[in-house]
Amino acid sequence: MNQQEMYNFFNLYKKECQKTDEWLAERLQQKPYQLTTEELTFGARVAWRNSNKCIGRLFWQSLHVFDERHLIEEEAIFEALLRHIDFATNDGKIRPTQTVFAPERVRIWNHQLIRYAGYETDNGIIGDSDSLQFTKMCMELGWQGAGTNFDLLPLVIQVDEREVKWFEIPKKHVLEVEMTHPEYDNFAELQLKWYAVPIISSMGFSCGGVEFTAAPFNGWYMGTEIGARNFADVERYNMLPAVADKMGILRESNSSLWKDRALVELNIAVLHSFKMAGVSIVDHHTAAQQFKLFEQQEEAADREVTGNWTWLIPPLSPATTHIFHKPISNEIKKPNYFYQKSPF
Question: How many Cβ atoms sit within 10 Å of the Cβ of residue 331?
């Protein structure tokens, strides 16, 4: 445990939660040191507020935190993850959620709790190419997928140095959205779909001098995450050529801007499909406006807004947002979320 970070955290907690000097002095003397659930919740919300790569920080105070630090059995942890998925999904009305497990004891090997498998075949890659290595590892553990473009990967959990365990996610827990387009009826022939909630599970949560190695968290999707990255990236599903063909756009020349036109329509399809399914999602223009409100709120609270500009600008039409045109400090503050070394 980092003593300086503990001291800094409790000073921040004292300031923002209107605690007294006497409370701080007494709190710093309490042994053994463990964050209360209230302190943990505050820390998780501030970690979201400090997340330089996130454009959706306006809603940081709405984060719901499940304190599951007492769970050290893999089956119980799996059940807690299912509860997180169900609570966050909320029949499509997505709730920002974080579940915190025992520090430096629990590790979730998945990048996200819900993710599609990827397979290398003689005819190319099937599924999500970003999942190739993890899918191969799951198969070595004994899992077997159906070999489709959208196979749900299992949850892989490790506690201490014990043997890794994997658990199939029952499909009833996973809300998925079938992709259609408001104008191109044949778009549905692409048979695209995506899961409703992006729950990051590979990042560590650093709070009050304690390192939580398993603390999955989620907000809701910004449309471009799916439409301009997951579906469009050449290294992912690489759907722009197929979308252009469905729209009847010739791909003979870059100067026809066929990629741009296909990209816009693909993003329109994602936003349309989520809204038709009643699932929370935000377009990048609205997200940028929300970020501007966040900046104003932080300024009113006399807090500097930090951010990673390359992540905050959307991958579609970034120059149409105010974020593109202004510099921002990329200073890292804690509490926060950090990448961890892959366990496999």
Answer: 10
d(CA 115, CA 111) in angstroms, rounded, equals 8
Q: How confident is the model at residue 197 (pLDDT cuts 50, 70, 90)?
A: very high
Task: Order across the sheet with 165-167: list the strands.
Answer: 106-108, 155-159, 165-167
Tokens of 76: 């119980």
The SS3 call for residue 61 is helix
Annotated active-site residue 138? The verdict is no
Average pLDDT for residues 254-270, to the nearest whole number? Answer: 97
Q: Dig out the tokens for 263 from the structure.
A: 């990209």
Q: 207 catalytic, yes or no?
A: no
Given pLDDT bands bounded at 50, 70 and 90, which one contains residue 1? confident
Q: Which pTM value belongs to this model? A: 0.97
**Of 49, 138, 194, 225, catalytic:** 225
Burial label for 14, CB within 10 Å (0-12, 13-18, 19+), is middle
In the DSSP assignment, the letter for residue 15 is H
Which of 45, 57, 107, 115 is an active site residue? 57
* DSSP helix/strand/coil, 16: helix
Tokens matching residue 338: 């950090």
Q: Is 54 a catalytic residue?
A: yes
Q: What is the DSSP track for 295-325?
A: HHHHHHTT---B--HHHHS-SSSGGGSGGGG
Q: Give the CB-side neighbour count of residue 108, counting CA atoms within 13 A.
A: 31
Q: Indicate the pairing of strand 106-108 with strand 204-207.
A: unpaired
The set of long-range contacts for 162-171, using a CB threshold of 8 Å and a minimum separation of 24, is 162/74, 164/109, 165/74, 165/75, 165/78, 166/138, 166/141, 166/142, 167/74, 167/75, 167/78, 168/143, 169/82, 169/85, 169/113, 169/114, 170/82
Report pLDDT for 8. Answer: 97
Q: What is the mean pLDDT of residues 88-103?
A: 98
Q: Taking Cα atoms as reference points, which of 209, 221, 201, 2 lies closest to residue 113? A: 201
Active site residue: 220, 258, 265, 295, which one? 220
Cβ(127)–Cβ(118) below 8 Å: yes
